[in-house]
Amino acid sequence: MNFEEHAGKAVLRGAGLPVPQGRVCHSPEEAAETARAIGPVVVKAQVPTGKRGKSGGVKLVDTPEAAADAARAILGMDINGHKVGKVLVEEKAGIAREFYAAVLLDTANRSPLVLFSTEGGMEIEEVAASRPDALKRLNVDSTKGFSEADAKALIQGLDLGDAADQVAAMLAGLYKVWEQRDAELVEVNPLALLSDGRVVALDCKLTVDDSSLYRQTDIAPQGAEEPMTALEKRGKDAGLKYIELDGNVGVLANGAGLTMTTMDVIQRFGGRPANFLEIGGEAYTKGTEALSLVLSNPGVKALVVNFCGAFARTDVMAQGVINAWKELKPTLPVFFSIHGTGEEEAIRLVRQELGIEPFDLMEDAVRHAVEAAQ
Questions:
Q1: What value does the mean pLDDT take over residues 244-262?
Q2: Catalytic pick from 100, 175, 242, 284?
Q3: Which position among 4, 5, 30, 187 bears the catalytic label?
Q4: Residue 284 annotated to the active site
């Protein structure tokens, strides 16, 4: 789950980390009232995506009237598919230096990774690509944690002057937030040294692991909902995990892992998956709605049905698809791969009821589907 800037900053503030004074506003009048109380401000679009400044979603103003005008211009904007419904109005900071700081999961090394750079306020990918030495990295032993002493060792030699202790405290605090909030990413860009000597998080990107939200009940309601297509909303309403993609090969598989594997194999053979949709667990009882979702994507030219049963019985899942097929009567080519518990009965059902011969290997089913979709 992604959190908009204001919600991410609220988490930082709750952890005792310094952020600017500000308020979320839903109208030009609220923006003007906030600016009147604070003084010169920055008006920022609140959407869970980047490049807001390049899209015109960030404006610096000096008066309440200008704050109202800025909010009026930003509210209702579309930024990367997100409609702006609120703005963050916060104090304008006198910036002396801009840094970059982040904590994330390094999947390659299976450990937390702390990042810091003195070149903040710009795309960190550009810094990493053009000047990799400018980005300090430290993989953390999660059993030992990351302390201010560790942070000071990471930033040693970077000529941070009197700001070094504050930066170290911020890095240690960000790691604590990352750990305690089950985060996938905590990123501050820029982390700013202000002209008055304070080090403050001027932005915050927070992403929390969806599977841990039951432990984060105090912040989960503040998470941003991703925009959904009409088909994705229909899938959610039906209790199905469906993600619409721009490919031409539809996928029906049981379990998220098998679904992702099937999608990978489609790409391996030069095809493009049209969807993510798992019908494992109780979802196999929704075969008609699941098949209808996949077929409702006009880009789908062929379909792969891939079942692998362990505890779940493939013959039961196959019967659900067969019933759906007979009800919906699609005409596009479909290719089955069935293995695991109940596979002999499942293969017999598909053969007898649909007149289709399942493939022995998943790769063959996928390859034929990719060819048929061309």
A1: 94
A2: 100
A3: 187
A4: no
CA distances from 245 to 82, 210, 242 (A): 18, 21, 10
Question: Which residue, 356, 278, 355, 352, is CA-closest to 317?
Answer: 278
First to last CA, the chain: 35
pLDDT of residue 130: 73
Q: At what angle do helices 287-296 and 230-237 cross, to 10 degrees?
A: 180
The mean pLDDT of 203-232, rounded to a whole number, is 92
Q: Domains along the chain?
A: 21-91 (3.30.1490.20), 95-222 (3.30.470.20), 230-373 (3.40.50.261)
Q: How far apart are CA 46 and CA 90, in angstroms?
A: 12
Q: What size, in residues, is the chain?
A: 374
> Active site includes 148?
no
Residue whose C-alpha is closest to residue 59's, from 48, 47, 69, 49: 69
Question: What confidence tens digit (pLDDT) does each residue in 219-242 have?
Answer: 999 999 777 889 999 998 998 989
Task: Report which DSSP code applies to 239.
Answer: T
